[in-house]
Amino acid sequence: MSETTGPYELGDPYELRVGVPDVATFRHLRTAAGMTDRPAEAVAAGLPRTWHGVTVHHDGHTVGMGRIVGDGGTVYQVTDVCVLPEHQGRGLGRRIMAHLDHALRTRAVPGAYVCLIADGHAHHLYAEYGFVPTAPHSIGMHRFV
Questions:
Q1: Most buried residue, 11, 43, 123, 124, by most Cβ within 10 Å?
Q2: In the sheet that 61-70 helps form, which strands lie side by side, from edge to edge?
Q3: Which helix (H) or strand (E) holds 16?
Q4: pLDDT digits (tens, 9 = 90+) for 76-87
Q5: pTM above 0.85, yes or no
Q6: Is 128 helix (H, G, I), strand (E, B) or coil?
């Protein structure tokens, strides 16, 4: 995989592009994939602060995405990895993760902490990229404001 610019051919008919979707597409991808919605105002504020993002396109439509957020030094979080249900089962999640992993390995500060929250069975995919459960040493926690 080359550096983090330009489209990356995934094989007909999918194309991977560096960047993030627009607000409406971001919200659609999340909800269609069974993830919680986020308020449009929050998405509009957050997307430009993405450290690295990728989208997957098919026939002119965005069908998947993934992002990395963080402080650019000590901590990064892999987030919003999702693929529309009708395009799942084709290895697109794995391709998104491979690209995000490449960006972390080539651009992140060595020794930085990288975390994520795995929904459902996604932990199997993330384990392929070296992610391990934090429990029992630590427990992931969350809240909404």
A1: 43
A2: 8-11, 14-18, 52-58, 61-70, 75-83, 113-115
A3: strand 14-18
A4: 999 999 999 999
A5: yes
A6: coil
